[in-house]
Amino acid sequence: MAKLAFASFLLWALTVAAGAFFYINGVTRTGLDGRKVILLSESERDQVQADMRKLLQTVAEITAALGRPDAPAVARLASNVGAQAASLENPALLAKLPLDFKQAGMNMHAGFDQLAAAARGGASPTRLTGMLGEQLAGCAACHEVYRFGN
After folding, report:
1. 15-69: pLDDT as tens digits
2. What is the C-alpha separation between 104 and 86, in angstroms, rounded?
3. For the chain, which domains are there?
4. How many CB atoms lie within 10 A of CB 129?
């Protein structure tokens, strides 16, 4: 009985360790350009890239709203890609992403929530533009480290 209990515990510990490893590291390899390649199926890659295109389109729309200036539009647009949007992600896909990529994504969504709150709070277009620039710097930093492949 003791051997069965030990074997069960060992199997459980290995399962937890493997789960933690993949939660932290995701499913990646190093690309020829030195960036981490996140290995996804074609449909998963399409989903992530569609989300990124939506973010880029939103940044373009926010930029136009700042040029008018239209703070209510900035708040509405930024809220649409805030933390609530991240809650809709596929858990199986999230499991394949490295922890620092997930953290960068959550920080990006939280940054859009902060931008929306600042716009609703009456921040100047200059301040809002600076906040949007910080968001784009985060995007650029992530793209410098990661790419997608299969």
Report:
1. 655 555 655 667 899 999 999 999 999 999 998 999 999 999 999 999 999 999 9
2. 12
3. 28-149 (1.20.120.10)
4. 17
